[in-house]
Amino acid sequence: MGLTVAVRKRVNGFALDSSWKIGNELAVLFGYSGAGKSLTLQLIAGLMKPDSGVITINRKACFDSTKNVDIPPQHRSFGYVFQNLALFPHMTVKDNILYGAKGVAKDEGMARLSGMIESFRLKDL
C-alpha cells in the first residue's frame, strides 16, 4: 500500500524532478513557494501529465511513461483540493461536499458527508 512518485516535468522554465514514496500513512509536502508542491499534487491527481516517470497508488500504476500508462483523474484513487476558491458559491456546504460523491450510494454519501463535516469542523457552516 502507499504512493510512489518518480516524475519529471518542465513548466514555464521550471524543472521538477521528484522521487519519493510513502506507505499507508499521513504525509505532508512542504517547501518554499515555487518549489513544486502543487505541481507534484497535480501530477499525482492526473490533472497534468509528467514528461516522464512513474506514479503508483497502492501498487497500481496511474502513470508510467515507459509503458504508455496514463489513467484519467476520475479513475485514480487520489483526491485533490485546489488552493484557490473552487467551491460552488451558489451551493451549500453540504451540496459542495456531496458533489464529489456522485455515483456513490446515498447512504454511503451521507455517511461520508457527516464524517467530513465533523473532521473539518464545518457543523456551524
Task: Give a brief description.
The protein contains 3 helices and 5 strands; from the N terminus they run ββαβββαα. The chain is of the alpha+beta class. The longest helix is centred in the C-terminal third of the chain and has 14 residues, at 106-119.
Contiguous runs where pLDDT drops below 50 for at least 5 residues: none
Let me know the average pLDDT: 90
Strand arrangement in the largest pleated sheet: 2-1-3-4-5
Our measurement of the CA-to-CA distance between the termini, rounded to an integer number of angstroms, reads 35 Å
**Structural shape:** globular
Element order: H for helix, E for strand: EEHEEEHH
- Count all strands and give the number: 5
Folded structure, characterized:
This protein is α+β, with helices and mostly antiparallel strands and 125 residues long. It has two domains: 3-75, no CATH class; 87-125, no CATH class. Helix content is 24%, strand content 25%. It is built from three helices and five strands. It has helices spanning 37-45, 93-99, 106-119; strands at 3-11, 14-22, 52-57, 60-64, 69-70. Strands 2-1-3-4-5 form a five-stranded antiparallel sheet, covered by helices on one side. Strand 3 and strand 4 (60-64) form a beta hairpin. The model has no long low-confidence stretch (mean pLDDT 90).
